[in-house]
Design brief:
Blueprint lengths: L3 H10 L2 H6 L5 E3 L2 E4 L11 E4 L4 E4 L5 E2 L1 H9 L3 H11 L11 H6 L2 H22 L1 H13 L4 H6 L3 E3 L5 H8 L4 H7 L2 E4 L2 E4 L4 E7 L5 E8 L9 E3 L15 H11 L2 E4 L2 H9 L5 E3 L7 H8 L4 E6 L3 H16 L3 E6 L6 H7 L2 H11 L1 E2 H13 L3 H17 L3 H15 L3 H18 L21 H7 L3 H13 L3 E7 L5 E7 H11 L7 H15 L6 H5 L4 H24 L6 H33 L4 H30 L1
Parallel strand pairs: 12-13, 12-14, 14-15
Antiparallel strand pairs: 1-2, 2-3, 3-4, 4-5, 6-9, 7-8, 9-10, 10-11, 15-16, 17-18
Helix pairs in contact: 3-4, 6-7, 6-10, 12-15, 14-18, 17-18, 17-19, 18-19, 18-20, 20-21, 22-24, 22-27, 27-28
Bound molecules: zinc ion.
């Protein structure tokens, strides 16, 4: 048992931001730090750490506590396990109180498995470096592959002897129970005989996020036909394949630093890239990523670059899996290696700077890559092309952020030579279905497998359905660009065009008031009215004012819109999709939001007039209504024309 003194030392030494920082990428916000919550799936950070108070709290799921609570919760540690972990982190010597046999018995299964893994790791490492067989077979194989000593030590590579039960025997001699050995998967039992799962293999230990060894992979060096080339530890209390990524412990800091995670297939790809100085790399071990693995990466970055060594058929087979990453809101890029080349061989045969350059230059946006690849195959066949449109629209529909969706629609429409509006309509259909799927009581369509676990609809998606999308867009422009100046044209008395500039907020407010248009959404109307009042004082409120607004609904809606703007500008820079001249772009955004808003209002007026007409029999009144209707329709056509000019410009 850990003494009270040691516990006090641990608690007074630990710094919450360091403890949490090992698992969550945190950035400073005022006196606090924020990051993506590791306890629930979120795309915008609501997980807050207070270094001053020594606590964390998530405003999304409500989880809160101190440093010890955090590792207990995060690593599923017991209280003593958490204390031991923290003592290790801060190099605090643990003062043990006498442990009885009974206490040892109570040591949890997890702890027993972790202990055994650590014991096995030491055994395999020692065998590789200090025995004749290890040096002659294991070490010489690794050296032949060009793996340096420091890298072998860093990844703690090892060797398991060819004697069938060398490890099992050694472990039992040291007091490890056969039951634990079998549970960990290190030992296999057959006809009363116990032997080593990994015998005569080079060992690749698998580390968890916190650096503990959770399992092993072993590669065979002999050419025995009935033994697979690679074997892994089976699932256990401490090793869950779908929740672990090879290399994450060594990569996490580099991933956060580079704000990008390279994804490869095999252990040796990870190791060779590390040797080339590229450390932000993990392996999914064969199959495509699981949701848990994606979330693990999301703690450090929103960008994934997949390094492929596959043929076109293999790539196409992986599209569904990559769609899943897109659905998590990640920005996915792809790098293709030449036929017969893989990240491992490429890293070994090229200078580190060439490797980094190659990856950077070859990285292609996944959605555009997919479009081009499939487009190549349609060869002008209209039926195949229709299939392609559906396929691409499905992927775009998965992107959680509305603005990114719009940008991809633009790009893909140009690539496929399909009108934007067609793609837009298809994407909206998908979003509608997605929302219907989440409303209980409505019959669910046949599950198509890869869209399961759809997130709850965002406010933006709800607005899209409830006809308030245009209102939201306009308010967003007010909040984001209200204080920006845009250049406009007007005609002077002689009919000459004069350029003048105006603040975006004034432009929108004046225009809406002149046309006597109103916001239907309560929240948006409140925000708009604040802009109107501010204008009377010749002021433009900035978004900080709304973010800290006394009305929590207004504050929340503002923060919601701000965050998607942050992602937007980041995407623009990273993908260089549009944005050459941003000021000019703001003007287009504002104008198109304005016109869309008006077009929507006109649509509604037209529908209302038509309904009115059906209930009126007086010929004179019908005549008046018809004339009004004609005017409305004419304005609508005019507005849509202008809108078309802006969008296609
Ligand atoms: Zn949370």
């Amino acid at each position: 048992m850990i003494s009270r003194d040691t516990i006090d030392t641990i608690i007074s030494t630990l710094r919450i931001e360091e403890v949490v920082g090992d698992f969550v990428s945190l950035r400073r916000r005022g006196v606090n730090m924020i990051g993506l919550c590791p306890f629930h799936n979120e795309k915008t950070p609501s997980f807050t750490v207070s270094p001053v108070k020594g606590i964390y709290k998530c405003f999304g799921c409500g989880k809160a506590g101190n440093g010890v609570n955090f590792v207990m919760e995060h690593e599923h540690f017991s209280y003593p396990e958490a204390l031991r972990y923290l003592a290790g982190k801060y190099q605090i010597e643990i003062e043990e109180e006498v442990q009885t046999a009974e206490m040892q018995e109570q040591m949890s299964e997890r702890e027993a498995l972790f202990n055994l893994n650590q014991f096995a790791l030491d055994f395999f490492e020692t065998t590789l470096h200090d025995t004749e067989e290890g040096k002659a077979i294991g070490l010489s194989y690794l050296k032949e592959r060009g793996i340096r000593d420091d890298i072998i030590r860093k990844f703690k590579l090892g060797y398991s002897p060819s004697t069938w039960d060398a490890f099992t025997k050694h472990a039992r001699e040291q007091g490890y129970k056969l039951e634990v050995l079998v549970k960990s998967g290190m030992t296999l039992q057959k006809d009363e005989r116990a032997y080593d799962r990994f015998h005569s293999r080079v060992i690749f230990p698998i580390h968890g996020v916190s650096g503990k060894v959770i399992g092993f992979g072993g590669r065979i060096l002999t050419s025995e036909k009935n033994r697979p080339k690679y074997v892994n530890s089976p699932e256990s209390e401490v090793y869950n394949k779908s929740k672990s990524l090879y290399g994450i412990y060594f990569a996490r800091n580099a991933i956060a630093l580079k704000n990008n995670c390279y994804l490869v297939e095999g252990y040796t790809d990870v190791i060779s890239l590390h040797q080339a100085g590229i450390e932000n790399v993990v392996a999914s071990s064969g199959t495509s990523l699981t949701h848990e693995q994606i979330r693990m990466i999301l703690r450090y970055t929103k960008q994934v670059t997949i390094l492929y060594d596959r043929d076109p058929a293999g790539i196409k087979a992986s599209f569904r899996g990559i769609d899943m990453i897109v659905e998590e809101g990640m920005d996915v890029k792809i790098v293709l290696f030449a036929e017969g080349e893989d990240p491992d061989s490429f890293a070994r045969n090229h200078h580190p700077t060439e490797v980094e350059e190659f990856i950077t230059n070859k990285a292609d946006n996944f959605i555009l890559f997919k479009t081009r690849l499939l487009l190549d195959e349609t060869k002008g066949d209209p039926i195949k092309k229709a299939g392609l449109v559906k396929e691409i629209v499905n992927t775009i529909g998965l992107i959680p952020d509305g603005i990114s969706r719009t940008l991809y629609i633009k790009e893909c429409s140009a690539l496929m030579n399909v009108p934007e509006q067609v793609l837009m309509n298809e994407v909206r259909k998908i979003l509608r279905n997605k929302i219907k799927k989440n409303i209980p009581g409505i019959e669910q369509p046949e599950d198509v497998g890869w869209v399961e676990e759809t997130a709850a609809p965002s406010q933006e998606e709800i607005d899209l359905i409830s006809d308030e999308y245009q209102e939201r867009e306009l308010i967003r422009q007010l909040l984001l660009y209200g204080r920006e100046e845009i250049a406009l044209l007007r005609l002077d008395e002689s009919g000459k065009e004069i350029e003048f500039s105006m603040l975006v907020a004034n432009f929108i407010v004046v225009d809406i008031l002149r046309d006597e248009l109103e916001f239907e959404n309560n929240l948006y109307r409140k925000i708009f009215n604040e802009f109107v009042e501010a204008r009377d004082r010749d002021e433009v409120p900035d978004n900080t004012y709304f973010k800290l607004h006394a009305d929590p609904e207004i504050a929340h809606a503002t923060i919601d819109m701000m965050v998607s703007q942050y992602e937007l500008s980041e995407n623009w820079e990273k993908n260089s999709i549009i944005v050459e001249e941003e000021p000019k772009h703001i003007k287009e955004l504002v104008l198109s939001a304005m016109l869309s808003f008006k077009a929507k209002k006109l649509d509604k007026m037209i529908t209302a007039k038509q309904r009115e007409m059906r209930e009126i029999t007086d010929q004179k009144e019908v005549g008046i209504l018809l004339a009004e209707l004609r005017d409305l329709k004419a304005s609508n056509i005019q507005i849509n024309k202008e809108l078309g000019r802006i969008i296609t410009k």
